[in-house]
Amino acid sequence: MEIHTVTEGATEFTCNAYLLAGSPPALVDAGTMPGVEDVVAEHVEDLEAVYLTHQHGDHVGELDAVLDRFDADLYAYGDHPRRTGGLADGETVEIAGESYEVVYTPGHAEDHVSFVGETRVFSGDVVVYNDGAFDDGSFGRTDYTGQSRERLIESLDTLLDRLPETVSELYAGHGDVYRADPDGDSDSVRDVVARALSRAERREPKYPEE
Hints:
This protein is of the alpha/beta class. The protein has a single domain (3-200), classed as 4-Layer Sandwich (Metallo-beta-lactamase, Chain A), CATH 3.60.15. The protein contains five helices and 14 strands. A hairpin with an 8-residue loop joins strand 8 and strand 9. Helix 4 (149-161) packs antiparallel against helix 5. The longest helix is centred in the C-terminal third of the chain and has 13 residues, at 149-161.
């Protein structure tokens, strides 16, 4: 299946919004890039659904534009006025024709979930590969009101427990997509998550200004 980062090249702060061009097509997060719905339309004629990892502004800024353009369903863990379906921890959902387990991963956001499949994980902001703080395994910031480093540490531990050994691709809310070398000559996705967990457990400020 082709997966497109439809917010690539944005000039404003945005998350990575991922278009899964499967059957039927779906979007993970919407981002804040004006015209993102046009980029989606360059790849697919229709969009069945949008799945949110969480509802921070950089993930939902252009959500209405996407929903209006495609009349797509919206699935989210937290309440949203346009939500057509909820997400529950441990539930299996079909995204673009593939099965993913919903893993509740709060700490960065109270409504945060990750989507864990057999070969890839959409981790939102709970864990990223590189983000300017760390280059090979980082974690979502927890210094704003309503966030919790302790809860995020628990979420990373939970994600590790429920991550299949077969997962080889990490699609995070920020930074680069990480793909492990199929020959085993690079870190596994589990290695990346474990490194992020170890760094979060230091309980040191992620950024100097925290």
